[in-house]
Amino acid sequence: MSEVGGQDPSWNRWRRPKPTAAQQRNDVWIMLAVLAGAVVATVLINSMGAFVFDNTPSLVEQFAWAAAVTLPLVVRRRFPLPVLIAVGVLFVMTQVRQIGDTLVPSIALFLAIYTSGAWEHNRTVARWSRVIVIVGMFCWLGYGLLDFLVDPGPGFEGAAGPLDPVLASVLYNIGFNLLFFLSAYFFGNLAWLSARRQAELEQRAEQLRFSQEQNMQGAVVAERVRIARDLHDVVAHHVSVMGVQAGAARRVFDRDRELALSALRTVESTARTAIGELRGLLGVLRAEQGERDGADKRPDESHPASPGLAQVPDLVPVAESAGLDVRLGVFGDPLPVPEGIALSAYRIVQEALTNVVKHATARKVDLRIRYLDSAVEVEITDDGRGRAAAAPRLPGSGFGLLGMRERVAVHDGELEVGPRPDGGYRVRASFPVRNDDQSTSDSREIPAT
After folding, report:
1. Which catalysed reactions does the entry list for this protein (predicted)?
2. Residues 89, 69: Cα–Cα separation, whole Å
3. How far is the CA of 152 from the CAs of 146, 148, 166, 171, in angstroms?
4. Dihedral of alpha carbons 398, 400, 401, 403, sign
5. How far is 295 from 291, CA to CA, in rounded Å?
6. Maximum C-alpha span of the chain
7. pLDDT, tens digit, 9 for 90 and up, residues 373-394
8. In whole angstroms, how far apart are CA 97 and each of 57, 82, 174, 398, 444?
9. Which of 80, 81, 90, 76 is nearest to 29 (CA)?
10. Range 40-50 average pLDDT
11. Partners of 382 in beta bridges
């Protein structure tokens, strides 16, 4: 006899957990209920004199046998195999002693076979132990039927069916016992499979919950990285320019008040620009939060739109105010560039110019925007320290290049950063842009003014 249903190979080694305290208490109540049923059945059968056997022992001995065959059920889930063996042996002994009640011992045997199939950890042992017990019971049944065939005894005077009474009695006993034992075997396996499937569902639910938590944590981390990157790009550039201008104003304050005032005006203008961009960033974040909450909210129209390639020329005078000679060149016909790519390109240019101001000690910067057939590129080169610029020395630095890589990776682009062979440093970012109708044209260079 095989197990009911197919087994998932990944769960072949599953073992049912030990019974809980509540289940063990239920076993006690089940044992008491079966024992009470045995006592009542024994009293009624003895009172009626409806004995199955001729030589029935005393009422006290029948009570003792009834208690012996039912008491093991109290530990049936903790020790299913010993209980099966004990109840099977005691069941045969009650048959040998010819006690009056045979129904309740049969119920106890049914529960023992069922429990072995439902709770025994070793499935091979569970299978063959039940098979051996069932075969043994049929052998005992066969012995009883042979004895009955030798001496049927009286009791068939009123038979009126089409079959021989003795044959009908044999077929009835065989059919009843087949149904009895196979039901105990089948429902025991079914209970074990149900418990295993429940455990599998609980594990999958736990895995799903863990996966959802991981995804949520990943989304939170990604959101924090994005906000940190945007804040860095907005603040670092303007603060760097403000620092350079404030330092210049401090150095020339006593000698050239007009130049110092000009530098301070640049600081003031840059601070206002930084505040405006911060407000725009916060407006975007609030708008995104409103969309997540399902609210019908619109960003504050006073917040400026996200900068893009069209605003790159605005970075030139800010960099020049820090003492750089910036030359801007635009090559190819401008493409319709997605807003996210345009913003990333703008931020990379902004960060590259900031690094030049902070680290390169350069004098000239060549800034180029190239519109290609299927991509847009920005390239920033300078005549500064080259390799030294690749390793900023300021505390907390190093996030700029990381932010560039993240922005390019989001759009499946390419980033090249490093010193040039003839000196200086180069940053080149390429973003793929799909535009089937775009046609190339002659390049043109626009010097910055």
Report:
1. ATP + protein L-histidine = ADP + protein N-phospho-L-histidine
2. 9
3. 10, 5, 7, 14
4. positive
5. 6
6. 139
7. 889 999 999 988 654 444 443 3
8. 7, 22, 22, 92, 113
9. 76
10. 83
11. 365, 425
How many CB atoms sit inside 10 A of residue 297's CB?
12
Quick check: 367 and 380 in contact, CB under 8 A? yes
Q: Please, what's the b/e burial string for 219-245 (b: 16 or more CB within 10 A of its CB; e: otherwise)?
A: eeeeeeeeeebbebbbebbbebbbebb
What's the pTM value of the predicted model, to 2 decimals?
0.52
Tokens 């916060």, located at residue:
282
* Count of Cβ atoms closer than 10 Å to residue 298 Cβ: 10
Question: What's the pLDDT at 443?
Answer: 39
Query: How many residues does the structure list for the chain?
Result: 449
pLDDT tens readout for residues 4-34: 444 455 666 788 888 899 999 999 999 999 9
Can you read off the two tokens belonging to residue 181? Answer: 């034992």
Q: What gap in Å lies between CA 99 and CA 268, rounded to an integer? A: 108
Determine the distance from the C-alpha atom of residue 212 to the mean position of all C-alpha atoms in its chain, rounded to a whole number.
Answer: 5
Q: Highest mean pLDDT: which of 6-15, 26-35, 48-57, 247-256?
A: 26-35
Cα→Cα distances 165→153, 155, 179, Å: 11, 10, 21
For residues 101 and 46, give the distance between their C-alpha atoms in angstroms, rounded to a whole number.
9
End-to-end CA distance of the chain: 92
Q: Which position has the higher pLDDT, 67 or 146?
A: 67
Beta bridge mates, 418:
426
